[in-house]
């Protein structure tokens, strides 16, 4: 990438930051860099990593493609905002406002699997006629995609919100893992579908959802890199550790039960500690305060 490319990315980053109404210092904190480093990026004097570019796009409400100039006509749209029926506190999980058909479909996919569920069984569970279900949803695939989109929408605002509250890179990593663990316990049904039904998507839908999932993995990888750098530790196994931590969280729906002996909050704090230990990082204080 040339210096002119760096300058173009920096200019677009500044434009997106201004459109989002964020200061240089506030944005730098969310990205886990110093204001001086962000200023250098915006002025084209230093490069920005792919992982951090994805964080910037998510924070500023645009896309990485727009920031690097692949979508020249796409303006920044401001930061991603949680839907009105969701809390802005990433640790709180109020009930989802689901329509009866989608709620029935989620229950059916968890109980019988995508291929075991039918539009008729979903209609019966929703207390509706089959034509009534088709009035709201084109087919079973659309219901699966909607369920997976719900998952990704939540993760894409909860994880950056969690990171933004970290005072240090280690705190931001702990918060990232905590946010992932909380989602996979509080939203167990959605998370279970996400872990088990990617294979049931059409190729086009699978590519889109997989790309969205990869962005969350990149956020975790970036948090790990920053924490290791801050502590002066080697990065040799950072990517392997990142996959291990992610898998640890995505496996939670396989065994966790809300009516079991352990709370989501206890699991989340424990998993954050496990992640730090796996990487050889010291425990952080008040990582869940």
Q: In a nutshell, what does this entry contain?
A:
The protein has 289 residues and is mostly helical.
Please provide a written account of the structure.
It is a single chain. This protein has helices at 3-20, 24-31, 35-42, 50-60, 64-67, 100-112, 119-126, 130-136, 140-164, 169-186, 188-196, 203-231, 238-250, 264-278. With 289 residues, it is an all-alpha fold. Among the domains are: 3-67, lambda repressor-like DNA-binding domains (434 Repressor (Amino-terminal Domain)), CATH 1.10.260; 146-278, Tetracycline Repressor, domain 2. Helix 9 (140-164) packs across helix 11. Mean pLDDT is 88; it is low at 72-87.
SSE sequence, one letter per element: HHHHHHHHHHHHHH
How many strands, what sense, and barrel or not for the largest sheet? none
Say what the CATH topology of one domain is: Tetracycline Repressor, domain 2
What value does the average pLDDT take?
88
Shape: globular
Beta strands, count: 0
Strand content: under 5%
Number of helices: 14
CATH architecture of one domain: Orthogonal Bundle
The percent of residues in helical segments reads 55-70%
Organism: Nocardia nova SH22a
Pfam family, one: HTH_3
Protein name: Putative transcriptional regulator, TetR family
GO molecular function: DNA-binding transcription factor activity; transcription cis-regulatory region binding
């Amino acid at each position: 990438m040339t210096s002119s490319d760096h300058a173009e990315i920096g200019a677009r980053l500044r434009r997106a930051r201004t459109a989002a109404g964020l200061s240089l210092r506030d944005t730098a904190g969310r990205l886990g860099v110093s204001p001086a480093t962000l200023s250098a990026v915006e002025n084209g004097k230093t490069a920005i990593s792919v992982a951090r570019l994805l964080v910037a796009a998510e924070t500023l409400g645009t896309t990485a493609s727009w920031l690097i100039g692949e979508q020249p006509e796409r303006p920044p749209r401001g930061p991603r905002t949680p839907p009105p029926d969701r809390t802005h506190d990433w640790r709180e999980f109020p009930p989802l406002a689901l329509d009866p058909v989608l709620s029935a479909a989620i229950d059916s996919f968890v109980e019988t699997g995508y291929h075991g569920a039918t539009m008729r069984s979903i209609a019966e569970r929703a207390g509706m006629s089959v034509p009534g279900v088709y009035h709201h949803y084109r087919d079973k695939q659309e219901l699966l995609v909607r369920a997976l989109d719900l998952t990704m929408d939540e993760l894409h605002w909860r994880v950056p919100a969690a990171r933004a509250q970290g005072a240090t890179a280690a705190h931001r990593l702990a918060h990232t893992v905590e946010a992932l663990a909380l989602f996979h316990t509080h939203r167990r049904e959605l998370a279970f579908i996400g872990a088990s039904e990617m294979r049931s998507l059409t190729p086009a839908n699978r590519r889109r959802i997989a790309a969205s999932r990869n962005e969350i993995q990149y956020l975790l990888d970036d948090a790990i890199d920053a924490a290791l750098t801050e502590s002066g530790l080697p990065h040799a196994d950072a990517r392997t550790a990142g996959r291990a931590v992610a898998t640890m969280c995505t496996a939670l729906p396989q065994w966790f039960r809300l009516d079991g002996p352990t709370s989501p909050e206890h699991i989340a704090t424990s998993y954050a500690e496990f992640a730090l230990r796996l990487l050889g990082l010291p425990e952080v204080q008040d990582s869940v305060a």
